[in-house]
């Protein structure tokens, strides 16, 4: 770009010290946020600075908005899904309503949404412009100012009038410059996205002026080139990408037409041509810095012209939303975006008795394409409407117009001859009341569009095209005019999950299939089911509807339906069939009774559960009592088969509890039992005396609802009822000790995160070394010395090794020639356990001696994975289950191997990190790194181990791009400093350097017409030619997991790859997140990850087919890439939602150099003499962040906020 267009920067070095900012409550019109409520922070897993103080943040996620809506009784916006054209509200009943607008209805100003307001106002510098528009526009206040300046993503187009302009007269959205030539006014109209400038030629003398025969404007662009395309369309193309940024439909001219007809049609002639007007096309020429319009000479000289004449070019940016008109009288002409008119006709043109006033126009139809972003298989569309403003009807009588779902999309090439098929009629309306104008909120005609919205949701359509036409296209009486302000409003819900854990007491777990002896019950049972709605929080109420059917002997089918009262989400619902008021206590015996259940949240119901059955036989023996002090404490005082269930969530996942079964019958000889299933013949307990109780230990291994079942069997083999008890199990307790080993270099000991058990370091321990997540995830380095290279606790017996326990740690083995122990606990002469490495098989090793002091053997489990010099950091976890006599090793979060263990002695010694005990002393010194050691006195769940295997998250750098400075030692470049949390000092080695003309735009916040930054006070502008930014600081690492994030706005459609972020190796880029063109004018966001640093390497590619790149979105789109080094998982998030993911083919270590991040380009080939870079980004970038570790979904949602958040 030309350096003269750069934003100048302050002479001194500055950086942004921003406190944590809460999202602003910019809610629209009547939408109310219930302020004062408390909402849980969706990202409490990541806290790198002080949280927002004062008011709670407005609802950002769907779950937060639903909670606020229920509390307030009013719709609440889901801010994470809001744009200038789209808004989603959570409704008090738990449903959501999403609105897609063809044109912007609101704009972001100072972090708040405000309604679009195109009223012209004056700025202090004298210029005029719309009060609140999506596109940045500025018009002359008179004098030598440019007539019009429009900008998007750092691309600026200016038009100038050849002479000084008079001060404009402002009225609504218009600025009129009187007598710019004799008897010629110049009128500018502004919309939310564009403007028109119309020359009003009032007299024949004015029409004869040479300045009218060829109208010349000065034309200037920044990062733009201008061309005239087919059909005399002026386009302004991005110099970098070649895509169209601004475009004008073919300019046209018309006369005043029949004044009576114009009045009847409510047409303002400076905005659009009356049907009766004489019209002609205007020639367009671009010659250097001059735009020439050549009006039709014949129309200028026509003696029958009805003055004024109107000469109307229009300028507008491109957009994903679109609309068009087609005219059967001009079958091969296109009227894209109504040719700049705000409204257009449907129906047959009115040909009056005085003659043909329609020229060739005949039947007109209107087409609209709107986003339908419902690519979510969990939603159910309950209703949808298509709203639009009608500005005119022929005579006010009720005449039908119909809405259709079209068979294909539309483009600027759509005309009558190639219009898409009118596939499915949605609705018919006969409106009679007109509005006087088109605004973003005055839609007065509503069509039902539920069918089309449901199709869009089922088929994952990103956009859907609608059409409006008159039912009677043979009569002028059906004439109507509709605006370009269509809105598609879709109400949807995510229904509750299908009920689970279906049980009957007596009866046990759900019985299906062919009835057998297990179906019989001795009494009318209580039916139970667990209901949940994954999309709402635990406080949201649900109801259960039970349906029970049976056919009495010789009778007809009977049905009983009962709906429960409301209970909290994630609750067990009971239906007591024996209840005299609500149940069926007199069910017949010896017939099959079937039952099922549905869940409802008030607006949507789940799928019906599986159908269960039982058979009543009152001669069957009653069931047994079930007790458990750990999980069924509320039933302790009850000795009957009935179970008193509290419904509370009990801490205990991964912990064993005792369950006792006892029958009132004296002849019981055995009990069959089951957990989360019916009693099994393989699960049999025998009492010490007939009729006596039995007990069994069991540990729930999921945080979920569970149930236990039991059958008592007498000496004759006759079985009792199946008794059942339901209980809910919450997550298990935290670790008993945890050493992250992130202590400062030179520390004498490692801090226990639980506070009570520090580990003293030997003299050979080196703290502060890069860990599994690089420097941001520190570790200790041990030299392999038994006497100096270790850490040990003074406290003893942290783990009772005679009971279940879990050990976890990150380890890196640097020497593979001898045995090594990373973690152990001392016994007397042997360790209670040890976790390390064995050179015998070259694998990870865990062992437990069979006894203390004089052990005969060690029970061991080794990994299936072989350890090599290239293995690097590995997460190990071993779960020891002394009850089942098993131990399972997990490697990088995945189960690797299971082996037997039959040792139940308890060691009571110290914890040793880096060695283990032997009779001769401590041995097996660890040579390598250790980090994040955790000890648990329970079985750790697989999901928890997976979480432990994720490296800790830490922000490496955040470039807010709110400022850029010229360093004293290099005046040829700009530098953007790291943005830090209040009180911290930026690290100058993390500066982002801007090259080749890249610059940071920081507009005056008080200028109402300036282009606004994506977030905060500024953003970086790249020209797509050779501009880019880069950091020389290694931020990602060669072995660890990482995440990168940025907000991006394309200047135009990407005809070729445009890279947002990348990391170069020596020969190719390790990863690239970019916009790609997949053909047919279609764009996608894409992430590629190279398997190796080689030009011909394989790559993992993930593509987002849902969130299409949208240059028209003034807020840009937020992109996040996460890379899990140990599972090889890569994920791409767009605007806070997971867009695509895959498992990569790369190895555990990046074999290229750990170079800094490239912003706005990527290394394509590093093998050439001069490395080849490409994919230069054309547009603006903002809010660039790099993390070590993997961002979680909740934090990604917060990062997608359009409010600056320096604490993330």
Automatic annotation (TrEMBL):
GO BP terms in the entry: immune response
All residue ranges annotated as the LamG-like jellyroll fold domain in the record: 803-943, 1040-1194
Superkingdom: Bacteria
Protein name per the record: LamG-like jellyroll fold domain-containing protein
Keywords of this entry: Disulfide bond, Signal
UniProt source species: Catellatospora citrea
A Pfam family this chain is assigned to: Laminin_G_3
Coiled coil ranges: none
Region Disordered, annotated ranges: 415-437, 743-786
């Amino acid at each position: 770009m030309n350096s003269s267009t750069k934003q100048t920067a302050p002479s001194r070095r500055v950086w942004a010290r921003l406190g944590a900012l809460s999202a602003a409550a910019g809610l629209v019109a009547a939408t109310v946020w219930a302020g004062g409520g408390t909402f849980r922070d969706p990202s409490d897993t990541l806290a790198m600075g002080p949280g927002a103080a004062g008011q709670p943040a407005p609802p950002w996620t769907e779950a937060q908005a639903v909670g606020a809506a229920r509390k307030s009784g009013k719709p609440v916006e889901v801010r994470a899904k809001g744009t200038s054209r789209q808004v989603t509200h959570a409704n008090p009943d738990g449903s959501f309503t999403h609105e897609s607008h063809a044109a912007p209805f609101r704009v972001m100003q100072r972090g708040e949404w405000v309604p679009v307001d195109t009223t012209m106002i004056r700025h202090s510098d004298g210029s005029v412009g719309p009060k609140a528009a999506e596109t940045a526009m500025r018009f002359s206040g008179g004098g030598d100012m440019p007539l019009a300046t429009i900008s998007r993503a750092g691309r600026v187009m200016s038009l100038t009038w050849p002479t000084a302009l008079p001060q404009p007269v402002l009225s609504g959205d218009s600025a009129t410059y009187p007598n710019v030539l004799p008897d010629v006014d110049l009128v500018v109209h502004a919309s939310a996205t564009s403007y028109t400038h119309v020359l009003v030629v009032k007299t024949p003398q004015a029409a004869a002026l040479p300045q009218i025969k060829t109208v010349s404007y000065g034309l200037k662009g920044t990062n733009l080139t201008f061309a005239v395309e087919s059909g005399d369309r002026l386009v302004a193309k991005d110099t970098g990408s070649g895509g169209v940024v601004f475009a004008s439909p073919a300019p046209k001219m018309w006369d005043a037409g029949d004044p009576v007809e114009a009045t009847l049609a409510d047409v303002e002639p400076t905005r659009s041509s009356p049907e009766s007007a004489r019209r002609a096309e205007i020639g367009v020429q671009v010659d250097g810095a001059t735009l020439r319009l050549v009006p039709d000479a014949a129309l200028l000289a026509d003696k029958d012209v009805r003055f004024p004449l109107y000469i109307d070019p229009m300028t507008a940016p491109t957009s994903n939303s679109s609309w068009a008109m087609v005219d059967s009288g001009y079958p091969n002409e296109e009227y894209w975006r109504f040719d700049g008119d705000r409204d257009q006709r449907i129906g047959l043109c009115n040909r009056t008795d005085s003659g043909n006033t329609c020229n060739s126009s005949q039947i007109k139809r209107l087409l609209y394409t709107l986003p339908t972003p419902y690519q979510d298989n969990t939603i159910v569309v309950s209703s949808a409407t298509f709203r639009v403003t009608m500005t005119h009807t022929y005579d006010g009588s009720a005449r039908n117009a119909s809405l259709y779902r079209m068979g294909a999309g539309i483009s600027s090439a759509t005309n009558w001859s190639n219009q898409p098929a009118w596939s499915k009629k949605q609705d018919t309306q006969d409106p009679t009341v007109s509005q006087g104008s088109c605004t973003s909120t005055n839609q007065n005609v509503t069509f039902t569009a539920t069918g089309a919205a449901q199709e869009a949701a089922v088929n994952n359509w990103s956009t859907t095209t609608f059409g409006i036409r008159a039912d009677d296209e043979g009569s002028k009486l059906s004439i109507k005019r509709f605006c370009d302000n269509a809105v598609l409003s879709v109400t949807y819900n995510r229904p509750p999950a299908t009920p689970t854990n279906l049980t009957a007491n007596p009866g046990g777990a759900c019985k299906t299939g062919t009835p057998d002896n297990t179906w019989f019950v001795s009494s009318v049972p209580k039916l139970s089911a667990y209901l949940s709605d994954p999309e709402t929080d635990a406080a949201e109420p649900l109801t259960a509807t039970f349906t029970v059917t049976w056919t009495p002997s010789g009778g007809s089918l009977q049905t009983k339906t009962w709906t429960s009262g409301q209970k909290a989400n994630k609750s067990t619902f009971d239906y007591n069939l024996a209840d005299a008021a609500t149940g069926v206590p007199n069910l017949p015996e010896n017939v099959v009774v079937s039952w099922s259940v549905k869940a409802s949240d008030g607006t949507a119901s789940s799928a019906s559960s599986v159908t269960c059955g039982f058979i009543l036989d009152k001669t069957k023996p009653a069931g047994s009592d079930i007790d458990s002090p750990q999980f069924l404490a509320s039933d302790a005082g009850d000795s009957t088969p009935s179970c008193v269930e509290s419904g509370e969530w009990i801490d205990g996942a991964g912990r064993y509890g005792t369950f006792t079964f006892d029958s009132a019958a004296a002849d019981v000889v055995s009990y069959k039992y089951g957990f989360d299933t019916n009693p099994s013949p393989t699960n049999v307990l025998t009492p010490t005396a007939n009729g006596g109780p039995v007990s069994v230990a069991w540990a729930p291994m999921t945080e979920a609802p569970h149930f236990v079942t039991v059958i008592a069997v007498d000496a004759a083999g006759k079985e009792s009822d199946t008794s059942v008890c339901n209980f809910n199990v919450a997550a298990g307790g935290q670790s008993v000790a945890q050493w992250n080993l992130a202590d400062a270099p030179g520390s004498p000991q490692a801090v226990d995160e639980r506070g009570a058990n520090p580990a003293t370091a030997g003299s050979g321990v080196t703290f502060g070394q890069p860990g599994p997540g690089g420097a941001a995830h520190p570790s200790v380095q041990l030299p392999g010395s038994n006497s100096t290279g270790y850490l040990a606790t003074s406290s003893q017996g942290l783990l009772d090794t005679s009971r279940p326990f879990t050990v976890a740690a990150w380890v890196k083995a640097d020497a593979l020639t001898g045995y090594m122990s990373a973690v152990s606990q001392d016994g007397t002469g042997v360790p209670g356990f040890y976790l390390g490495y064995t050179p015998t098989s070259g694998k990870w090793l865990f062992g437990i001696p069979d006894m203390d002091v004089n052990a005969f053997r060690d029970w061991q489990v080794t990994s299936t994975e072989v350890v090599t010099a290239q293995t690097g950091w590995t997460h190990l976890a071993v779960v020891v289950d002394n009850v089942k006599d098993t131990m399972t090793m997990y490697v990088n979060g995945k189960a690797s191997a299971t082996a037997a263990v039959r040792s139940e002695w308890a060691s009571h010694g110290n914890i040793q990190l880096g060695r283990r005990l032997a009779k001769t002393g401590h041995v097996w010194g660890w040579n390598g790194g250790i980090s994040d050691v955790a000890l648990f006195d329970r079985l750790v769940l697989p999901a928890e181990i997976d979480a432990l295997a994720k490296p800790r998250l830490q922000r490496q750098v955040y470039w807010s791009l709110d400022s850029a400075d010229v360093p004293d030692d290099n005046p040829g470049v700009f530098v953007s400093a790291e943005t830090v949390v209040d009180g911290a000092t930026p690290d100058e080695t993390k500066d982002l350097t801007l090259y080749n003309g890249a610059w940071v735009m920081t507009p005056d916040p008080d200028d109402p017409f300036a282009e606004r930054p994506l977030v905060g006070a500024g953003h970086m502008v790249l020209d797509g030619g050779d501009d880019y930014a880069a950091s020389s600081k290694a931020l990602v690492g060669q072995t660890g997991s990482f995440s990168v994030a940025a907000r991006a706005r394309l200047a135009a459609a990407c005809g070729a790859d445009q890279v947002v972020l990348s990391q170069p190796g020596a020969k190719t880029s390790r990863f690239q997140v970019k916009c790609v063109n997949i053909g047919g004018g279609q764009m996608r966001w894409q992430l590629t990850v190279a398997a190796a640093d080689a030009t011909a390497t394989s790559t993992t590619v993930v593509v987002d087919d849902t969130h299409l790149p949208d240059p028209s979105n003034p807020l840009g789109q937020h992109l996040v890439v996460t890379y899990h080094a140990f599972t090889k998982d890569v994920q791409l998030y767009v605007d806070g939602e997971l867009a695509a993911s895959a498992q990569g083919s790369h190895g555990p270590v990046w074999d290229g150099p750990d170079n800094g991040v490239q912003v706005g380009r990527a290394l394509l080939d590093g093998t050439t003499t001069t490395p080849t870079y490409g994919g230069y980004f054309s547009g603006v970038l903002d809010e660039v962040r790099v993390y070590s570790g993997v961002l979680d979904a909740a934090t990604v949602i917060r990062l997608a906020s359009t409010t600056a958040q320096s604490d993330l």
